[in-house]
Design goal:
864 residues; alpha/beta; Rossmann fold; 4 domains; 23 helices; 41% helix; 16% strand; rod-shaped; GPCR_3_9-Cys_sf; signal; transmembrane
Length: 864
């Protein structure tokens, strides 16, 4: 793209940046007439190599910046940063990859790659300067006129997401693709904002998902969150909080490490907010870069705080700067997710070729020697450190720079360079009239535009060291992490041990695999540390959330009856109930009127009643020809005794577990037998009343109440009850039911009446018969004679009505087996009332006073 077309944008950007960083390099027109680009300030690359095609590289070769005072009143000094050997290794990996590609006969034959490597100092403004410097060119003569295709085809960088956002926005107008090796912020998936961004590191959406599963796996429900002051930390924390929604994990606190590190602020965080010595949150999840964590952890160690279980993001979980033995007491046991490691065959040998003798004028190489050996290889740089020869051997203990056994970020740099090379190779292989651009055209090999390379980069697929490398539509790569655990090595230093993996391509619930037995936790413990706000409730108690506090902070209160568990006191199933301690569900006690103490008593009373009735029947049958039996209508007496026997025996149907047949038989048998009994008494009452109310000798009223008529009265009165019962059984018959409402800890087996209307009709009809008998007998209570049957019928009906009137409220208020017992007692009480009132006086005369068993005595006509 022609740079002149974007001059207004660059000028506005330069106006903004030059106020804060005057040393930025940028071209802008000297005069509108000449359109000559003039270099205002230089920002030199740290490593340069010419080639047919040039790529840029941006690395945080320094960190822990201390920004100068930017008051715009004087020219500020340059940014002061500290050297990072680890990032320097990443930059050397880019150089190695370019050298391998240039020496390859299969990849980009007859073409060479060049590079320009800049330092971002792990700061967005410095990264911005680097991006603009790459676009401007190295020297003023390199670009006298802003015309033609961009000399820069792609950029490998940046490490931090905050820096990558700035660089990507600068490269976007020029449509220059950018491949990041360490920027995992989920924000880059927005193709509208970052259309030229690619990365060989997984999206943070997968990392926060992995961390959430890790916290749940170890039951760490009370954790702290710490992040850096940049988009990477902000988006990662937002994603983790969203991922933790609906889980039992709560966040105790959230804190931010200042981007421009401030020791006073850091101590405030450690002392006031973490409260690490006393807080129950013993697990701290950190989304931060290595440069920010280094001074922060140094201050943390100075506070002599131990016992914290750190959960590290991929940005610092494999940082070699923390492998020293002095870190283990404070950081040992750290768990985190590291990006996939690989193997770079020639990296060890290549790193050893970098020394002050080979690069005598390179400031970075001298800084490397100062960082590794604590000496200065050249006194010309004004260092106060002791001098060294510059021929010192690079050894394995220089792990910050020489750790090549399991490269991760460096491996990503390696893949990014090869992705550009393979894409460029595919572009150059384009056949005429078969290209992907307008009119099936191909890119011109001597004038390749970055956007043309981006097209091939989007579709590139290649294998490197057995791993397939490609990009999805959002520029992301395959989501894969190693679970890293910081363990003590043989020399007391920290070693990064692989204890599991997270494969984002697997189905939900199968992504995370952890070898629990291989993990060493904080404090050199093999036992999983506890990080909870409130201890788990004992069985039988539930969690009561404290007002104004997270869900993980709660009090334990006893569960209600019928509930168990230590979470929310769940109800037991319908047929179960909680035990006394509310710890388990046990089967509910099933109750019904069984043959227990109450059932046996009722059975004995019923049998005794039936036997007494049969005994009276036998007495009456044996003395059937005596006066008292004949006068009282022996046939009706036998009917009454037969009906009473059935009444006593029907009580037995109420005892035992209810069944379909027993439920239908209970009320129908009781109602029909009692109706038969009352019908017989009604017939006897009518006969007595008719016999003693005839006023004239010619009134033969008894002819209307003969034996046939008496039977008809009994049959007719009983038939009405039978019809009611038949209709009841057809329409809504009684059925066995399980009552769990009255007492929820028990299951009461009872017979539901089916139809309440039919049930009360049955009882009402018996009551109507009894009332009619009572009224008629009451009218005949003063008839002459020593043995007035009407008096006994009156007393029997009075007792009968009293019993059943008392039965109604008792029955309604009694549940289950007690209702059956109440009904049985009512049947027995009314049966004994009828038996004793009607037949006890007669048996007394028959058995004990036979001299009074004469017609004259009964009629009151015996001689005095």
């Amino acid at each position: 793209m022609h740079l002149l077309a974007l001059l207004p944008l660059l000028v506005s950007v330069s106006d903004l940046i030059l106020t804060s960083a005057p040393s930025i390099s940028i071209f802008f027109p000297a005069t509108s007439a000449t359109k000559v680009c003039t270099l205002q300030n230089s920002f030199q690359p740290d490593f340069v190599a010419e080639g047919d095609f040039v790529i840029g590289g941006i690395f945080p070769l320094h960190y822990n910046q201390e920004m100068p005072d930017l008051n715009s009143t004087y020219l500020p000094p340059p940014v002061n940063c500290r050297f990072d050997p680890r990032a320097f290794r990443w930059a050397q990996t880019l150089r190695l990859a370019v050298d391998e590609i240039n020496q390859s006969s299969e990849l980009l034959p007859n073409n060479t790659l060049g590079y320009k490597i800049f330092d971002s100092c792990a700061y967005p403004l410095t990264g911005q300067r680097a991006a603009l410097a790459m676009l401007n060119g190295l020297k003023e003569r390199d670009a006298p006129v802003c015309s033609g295709a961009s000399p820069l085809l792609a950029v490998i960088g940046e490490s931090g997401s905050a820096q990558s956002i700035v660089v990507s926005r600068i490269l976007r107008p020029f449509r220059i693709p950018m491949i990041s090796y360490f920027s995992s912020c989920a924000c880059f998936t927005d193709r509208r904002k970052f259309p030229t961004f690619f990365r060989v590191i997984p999206n943070d959406d997968y990392q926060v998902k992995a961390i959430a599963q890790l916290l749940i796996h170890f039951n760490w429900t009370w954790v702290g969150l710490v992040r850096g002051d940049h988009e990477y930390g902000r988006f990662a924390v937002q994603g983790l909080l969203q991922e933790l929604q609906g889980t039992q994990v709560c966040v105790a606190y959230q804190e931010m490490i200042p981007l421009l590190y401030n020791r006073k602020r850091a101590l405030e965080i450690i002392s006031n907010y973490f409260v690490m010595r006393s807080s129950l949150a013993k697990v701290v999840v950190v989304f931060s870069a290595e440069g920010e964590m280094t001074p922060f952890l140094r201050d943390y160690m100075n506070q002599n705080i131990t016992g914290i279980q750190w959960v590290a993001s991929e940005a610092w979980v494999t940082a070699s700067v923390f492998t020293g033995s002095e870190y283990y007491p404070f950081l040992g046991g750290t768990i985190g997710f590291g990006i996939r490691k690989g193997h770079i065959q020639k990296l060890w040998e290549y790193l050893q070729t970098v020394n002050p003798q080979q690069y005598p004028d390179n400031v970075l190489v001298h800084e490397l020697w100062e960082a590794l050996y604590g000496c200065s290889s050249s006194q010309s740089f004004g260092s106060r450190l002791p001098s060294c020869s510059g021929q010192e051997l690079l050894l394995e203990q220089h792990s910050a720079y020489m750790n090549t056994s399991s490269p991760r970020v460096a491996y990503n740099v390696y893949k990014a360079v090869y992705a550009v090379a393979h894409s460029l190779h595919n572009l150059l292989l384009c056949q005429k009239d078969r290209g992907p651009f307008l009119n099936n055209s191909c890119a011109q090999s001597n004038n390749i535009h970055p956007w043309q390379l981006q097209h091939y980069l989007q579709e590139v697929t290649f294998d490197i060291d057995g791993e397939e490398v490609n990009f999805d539509l959002k520029g992301d790569s395959i989501p894969y992490y190693d679970v890293i655990n910081w363990q003590r090595g043989t020399g007391g230093n920290i070693e990064f041990v692989n204890v599991g993996l997270f494969d984002g391509t697997k189905s939900a619930g199968e992504e995370l695999v952890i070898q629990d037995s291989a993990i060493m936790y904080a404090g050199h413990q093999s036992k999983v540390p506890v990080s909870i706000c409130s201890t788990s409730c004992f069985p039988g108690y539930r969690k009561a959330v404290r007002r104004g506090e997270p869900l993980c902070c709660f009090d334990c209160v006893p569960c209600d009856t019928g509930k168990i568990n230590s979470v929310d006191c769940t109800f037991c199933p319908e047929d179960f109930w909680s035990n006394e301690n509310r710890t388990a569900c046990i089967s509910k006690k099933v109750e019904f009127l069984a043959y227990d103490t109450l059932g046996i008593i009722l059975t004995l009373i019923a049998v005794v009643g039936a036997c007494l009735t049969m005994a009276v029947f036998a007495v009456f049958f044996y003395h059937r020809n005596t006066a008292i039996v004949r006068v009282n209508n022996s046939e009706l007496s036998f009917f009454i005794l037969f009906a009473l026997t059935l009444c006593f025996l029907c009580c037995l149907v109420f005892i035992g577990e209810p069944t379909v047949w027993s439920c239908m038989l209970r009320h129908t048998a009781f109602s029909i037998t009692f109706s038969l009994c009352i019908s017989c008494i009604l017939g006897k009452t009518l006969v007595v009343l008719a016999a003693f109310t005839a006023t004239r000798p010619g009134d033969n009223i008894m002819k209307w109440l003969g034996p046939k008529q008496q039977r008809a009265i009994i049959f007719g009165s009983t038939a009405v009850q039978v019809i009611i019962c038949v209709a009841w059984l057809i329409d809504a018959p009684p059925y066995p039911s399980r009552n769990t409402e009255y007492e929820r800890s028990k299951i009461i087996l009872e017979c539901s009446v089916g139809s309440n209307l039919a049930f009360w009709c049955v009882l009402g009809y018996i009551g109507l018969q009894a009332c009619l008998c009572f009224v008629l007998a009451f009218l005949a209570r003063k008839l002459p004679g020593n043995f007035n049957e009407a008096k006994f019928i009156t007393f029997s009906m009075l007792i009968f009505c009293a019993v059943w009137l008392a039965f109604i409220p008792a029955y309604i208020s009694s549940p289950g087996n007690y209702a059956d017992a109440v009904e049985s007692f009512a049947i027995l009480a009314s049966g004994f009332g009828l038996l004793f009132c009607l037949f006890a006086p007669k048996c007394y005369i028959i058995l004990l006073k036979p001299e009074k068993n004469t017609k004259q005595h009964l009629m009151g006509k015996e001689k005095k």
